[in-house]
Structure formats: structure tokens, C-alpha cells
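Many introductory courses stop at the sequence. We go one step further.
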Amino acid sequence: MPEGPSIVIAREEMTVFIGNKVVEATGNAKIDMDRIQGKMLTDVKSWGKHLLLCFDDVTVRIHFLLFGSYLINETKSATVRLGLLFRNGHINFYAASVMVLDESADALYDWSADVMSDKWNSTAALRKLADNKEELICDALLDQDIFSGVGNIIKNEVLYRVNVHPKSLVGKMPLEKLKETIKQAKIYSFDFLKWKKKNELKKHWLVHTKKECLQCGQPLIKEYTGKKKRRSFFCKTCQKLYK
């Protein structure tokens, strides 16, 4: 599943179509194509893992789920979920969830929750964590209402950076450690973006899918943690468990 920084890259690549009308909308998405065809693309936005194509009266939300992808001015031998043809090129979406929303993106989304947004509010994130004291920090970091855009890779790398065990209870973590986690969630997301653009993201992983701890040399633990049983990679020596 693409994480927030990957959606930012998609957003940036698609801005070339802003100001152009959709000449043809095709694909097997269960939406009314007539609501898009002939309409001008006014903006492309991202909120967490959602890519938002903005038109005058509707917003098309793309969620890439586990295996979704897109191609610009290219095609592949797979079923097109949504294809948008403009006079200056085309976009094809594959294996993604496509929804047409009647309201504007600004009316639907809380930009202060998006770690990649200029409107990201770390104080609000801290308040939300205070309301979820019984949550494991591995679940809280994946909560899109708190850390929109943070996915499993970012979760693992952030917790290793701040030396916190993924099964720590939010309510047992010191305030300064919570603030450090919030800060690193944003910092690492932008590091992710930088490295992804250079096609060198995996080279910079410190813990995700790794076998040994870079700090102490001990074997890392791989465990499916939290409510969704997502993969966590961590060092039980260097990452403190708050419980």
C-alpha cells in the first residue's frame, strides 16, 4: 500500500493536467463517467493515502489499496480501473478504489492531520494521542485520523529512530517521547519523499525488513503487532517497552 509520500509524488506528476478538460473517461470503476467527462481538472491534491482529483462540482478520490498503481502517458496489459484522457496526455489507474465525492476536498478533509501538509498540526496530534491512551503506539501511528499518510514502513522507522517498542502503550509513554515520535513522523515522511524520488528508499531503511540492530548488533524481532497485525521490525534491547 503506497504511503503518503508516494501519493505526494503522484500528485506532483499529475499537476500537468490541471486546467485541461477530460476528453474521455473510461474504465471499470463503478462510477458515473459522465460526471467527469468534459469537466476541467481544477486541482490535484493529496491527503494521506488519498489522491484527490478536483473538478468544479465533484472530487474523484483514488485509494491505491494494496496493489493499486497508475501510469501517465503509458499503458500496460491490465484492466484499467479509471482512464482519463486529456488533450495533453492521459492517466490510467489500475487496481485502485475510485469514488466520486459530491463535496470539495477542503470540505471533506482535515489537512491538519496530514503529516505531508503545510497545515499539519503537531499539537492536535498530541491531543489526539492523549485521547487514545490505551492504544499501542504501533496502532496510533497508523491511525489516519492522527497521522494521515503514515504507513507501516514509516511506523517501523520512526519507532526505531525514537527507541520505542511498537507494543508500548501511548498512555505510558513520557510526554517528551510522544512529542519526539510526532516530530519524527513528519521528518521521516519527508526523508521518505526525498529518497523515493531518488529511487533509493530501501537503501536508507534502518530497521524495516532488516535482520540485525545497527545500534547493538542483536537480532531484530519480526512480529505482527497491533489491531491490524501489521509487520513490526524492532530491537527489544534498544527500543524501550512502555507498559
